[in-house]
Amino acid sequence: MREEYLVVIQAKDMGGHMGGLSGTTTVTVTLTDVNDNPPKFSKSLYEFVIPEDLAIGQPGGKVKANDRDIGENAKSTYNIIDGDERDVFEITTDAQTQEGILRLKKPLNFETKKSYTLKVEAANIRFDPNSGAPFKDTATVKIAVEDSDEPPVFSKPTFVLQVDENAPINTVVGTVTARDPDVTGSLVRYFIDRHTDLERQFNVNVDDGKITLAKPLDRETDMWHNITVTATEIRRVSTRGGDSCLNPLWREEEEMCSQSNSIAICHPNGNHSQISRATVAIRVLDINDNAPEFATEYEAFLCENGKPGQVIQTVSAVDKDDPIQGHYFEYRLIPEMLNNPNFTIKNNGDNSISVLAKHDTFRRQKQEMYFLPIIVTDNGNPPMSSTNTLTIRVCGCSREGIVQSCNVEAYVLPIGLSMGALIAILACIILLLVIVVLFVTLRRHKNKPLIIKDDEDVRENIIRYDDEGGGEEDTEAFDIATLQNPDGINGYLPRKDIKPDLQFMPRQSSGPNGVDVDEFINVRLHEADNDPTAPPYDSIQIYGYEGRGSIAGSLSSLETASSDSDQNYDYLREWGPRFRRLGELYSVGERGHLSYS
Predict the structure, then answer these.
(1) What CATH fold (topology level) applies to the domain 293-405?
(2) Strand, coil or helix: what is 443?
(3) What's the predicted TM-score (pTM) here?
């Protein structure tokens, strides 16, 4: 088919006779399409096989109706006109290929319906008004549902079970059931998702789904327990010859495979997706296993000037149990105090009682505190009871009954002593205290010296220095304690700032008691002047910089600008015994020249 034609037209004059003139032109003829062709399916019957587990919205097959027209006249729309009473399928048009795509609107179920026969219609979107109606064509589509391995299906999504608290271990709580919807009807095994039962309080029978107790339950701790039970298909394979489960690595808390009579029961093909889950809500039923007790620790206050029959305290009780018929508490005094002379109780009719005083002669001096034991019993089966104690304090109150003081005040009780005897006892106590004070004072005075030290001892604390550097490093140059001790001259005391390499033998004194101080000082002076370890001029001083503040200066400063002939080395003799030999070598001779030896 052609949409365009090129026509060449020639024109001649003189009627087309010889000798006439002519001219040509080209004419383009374009054909405009009209919808004069109906859509036509390539075949009248389409057959598809769709698995039952195909997801909703996924394509299950394609059909196409061809149209010889072009452009808008060739566009068609597809519809299902018969065979889809359950509205399981839908068909849409692909704008690019003009194909009809068959999709799922609802899930398929092989066990419910195995095949579908649909009648599909293709119709042009535009039609020629002269034709009176749009062009159409129909085709038959047969769909076969393919059986797929589906997970087990529980009989209901949620199971509600109940069990008594404190029921013994292995008590059956209830049963969950699931079946394999496939035609094969494989066996189902049950497991508990341990992430929902961290304390492992329940077990489930893998074969029949019976849930039993693994631990006793306490309603007062948890009233409800929600666990998840999973169901999976199993198959039987022979294990003779040492074969084992196909996928022994996949397990939950219980093993997924069990050996029994050479038959291994395993998950089919190890397909983990074929698992169903159901929620099991377990309610713990209450039993009367808790005794009632006071709602709080009561402490009542009783006025000394209170009236008989006055309400001291209103007491109520609580019970952790929750009986169906509600709580009812009975209060009574212990048998030993049924004829209590001080207090009584009255039932208020609302599970509370009032404690009343029987008289008005309560005194703190006589008894400050009372303890009233009360037995509280519930209406459970069997009934439970407990003994609770109410503490009652006797207090001083105002005339209006307002508590002012509950402490025991000091009272002088008659003990058979007269006022004179009490005064005598008090005087004795005071006298004893005075004696103790005097004794302590005398002991302190005895510790002080009775004789004042002589002037020589006093002078030891005050030292005057006139020598250079006194008080810095040479604080022991003249030790007065040594001067006072004649025996001190028997030993030589080295200088503190320099550890000597050579020590002189000590000089023996004439006697321990005939020491001349001047002679002792002269001996020490001679030893210091001839000490080879002593530095020149002065003791070692500590300065921030080397040589600063010293007459000798730094060793690097031993230089002169004078000539060799003008050198004078006589000062070397003044540097002490260590430099005496050096001074002799460089000393100036009598002839005015340096002598070398």
Answers:
(1) Immunoglobulin-like (2.60.40)
(2) helix
(3) 0.45
